[in-house]
Amino acid sequence: MPKETFFRLPKAKQQRLMDAAYQEFARAPFNETSISNIIKHAGIPRGSYYQYFDDKSDLYFYLLKTVRQRTVLTLQQVMTKHHGDLFPAMSEFFGKTITALVHGPHAALYRNVFLHMDFHSAAKMAGSKAPFLKPPHGHQEIHDFLLTSIDRSRLRIRADDEVSLLIRQIVGMFIQTIAYYYSNQAEGKPITVAELKRRGDQLLDWLQFGVSNDDHNHH
Amino acid sequence: MPKETFFRLPKAKQQRLMDAAYQEFARAPFNETSISNIIKHAGIPRGSYYQYFDDKSDLYFYLLKTVRQRTVLTLQQVMTKHHGDLFPAMSEFFGKTITALVHGPHAALYRNVFLHMDFHSAAKMAGSKAPFLKPPHGHQEIHDFLLTSIDRSRLRIRADDEVSLLIRQIVGMFIQTIAYYYSNQAEGKPITVAELKRRGDQLLDWLQFGVSNDDHNHH
DNA sequence: TCCGTCATATGACAAGGTGTCATTATAAAC
DNA sequence: GTTTATAATGACACCTTGTCATATGACGGA
C-alpha cells in the first residue's frame, strides 16, 4: 500500500500520479513499464515517488484495487439476484465481466493485467488470507462474500474449505479463460467474445454436472 | 531457441553454460535473474552470450525444455497403463509429478517456474499451436498426445475442440494447484504434499462427476 | 608460405532503470 | 523568530541489457 504521505497529498497531485500510472500500466505489461515513465508523465521528481510508494508493485496493486471495485459490486448483485445459486450466477457474472473487460474503457489495462498475471498473484486474487490484502475490497472480501452467500443445498459439498476450494477453482478458471482470449489475440488468431463466453459456460457446465459419461456416472 | 552457433560449441562449453543457467534460474524467479550472473558463473564473455541466445527467455525456455522431458514420458506411460481412462490416469500422473516437483532434485527450479508462471505461458503450456513451440517435446506434443489417447467413450464430450478445452482446463488446474502450494509456502503457512494431492484429486472428482447436488443433477 | 574468408570471441560502451541520501524547502507550533 | 516535523528534490552509485568494432583462429587455395 502507498505510504501515509501519499494520502496526505493534495487530491490533485494524487490524481495526477494515478493518471500517469494508469497510462503507463495500460501502455505495456508490468515488466516493461517503468517508474521513470510514470514520474515523467506526472511531473514528479524521482525522490518524491519513493516518499509515496515502496516500489513499482506498490503503485500497481493500489491502482488495480481502485479499478476493480466495480467488479466486486457486480458479483454481489448477481449472487443476490440468483439467491445464491452458484452456477447461474457465475455464468451471468462471467458474461457481464468479460464484456466489460474486453470492450470497456479499461480494456488496454486489463489486457496487460490478465495476460501477464502470474499464478502467485492469481492465488491471492482467488482469496489469500495474507495480511497485506486485508484492506476493504481486497480479494479476500470476494472470497468471503461468496463463502457465505452460496446456497450449498444445491451442491454435493458442504464444508467451508471445500467450498473455498471450489471458489478458487472457478476464479482461476475465469482468469485462465480470459488469459486464453488475450493469448490468442496476441498470437494473431483472435477469438470472439461470444466464443469466449461459450467456453466459460462450457467449463461451468462441466464442473456442475461432470464430464463423465452417464454409463459411468456416480461413484 | 538457441542459435546454431551454440549447438556447434564444444559439449563442455555448452554444459558449462547450461549449468550456470540452471543455477541462476533455481536461485531466483525469472525477473530477478540476470544474464550477467549466468555468464559470470559460466566464465563466458557478454558478447558471446548474444552469439548463442537471443535474450534471457531464449535460454530459459530451452533449459526448461530439457528438464521437462522426463515429465512427458511419465504422462505417456500413465495414459497407456490406464488405457486412456482420463481421470484415473490424471490422478496418478498428478500424484507422481507433484512428488517429483516438490521433493525431487529440481525442486528449487520448479518453485520459481510455477510460482511466477504467467497465464500467457500457461496457455502455451496447455497446448498452443504457435510455431515457435513446434520443436520435439514442446507442449503441443503433450496436448496432441492426450487428444488422441483419451478414451472418449467414458466422457459425455466427443468433439476435438471440446476435448481440447478439457485438456487445457486440467493442465491449468494442475498448474494452479501447484502454484497454490508454493504460494502458501511463500507466505509461511505451508501445506503438505499429501494435502496437495487430496486437493488435486478433489478437483478431478468434481470435474468428472460434477459438484451439483443429485436432486438437481442433469439438465 | 601467404592470403582471403568465414565463423567465433571479446569487452568496452551507450542507454536506461532502480533505490538512496544529503540537502532544501515548507509550514505549523511555540 | 526559532524550533520541529514533514515533504521535496535531484545527483549518485550501481545494475542490466543489447550492440558493435575489433581481434582471433582455422581452413582452403594459389
UniProtKB/TrEMBL annotation, chains A, B:
Keyword Zinc: no
Keywords annotated in UniProt: DNA-binding
DNA-binding region: 34-53
Chain ranges passing through the membrane: none
HTH tetR-type domain ranges (all copies): 11-71
Presence of keyword DNA-binding: yes
Domain of life: Bacteria
GO molecular function, one term: DNA binding
Protein name according to UniProt: TetR family transcriptional regulator
Source organism of this protein record: Lacticaseibacillus chiayiensis
Species classification: Bacteria, Bacillati, Bacillota, Bacilli, Lactobacillales
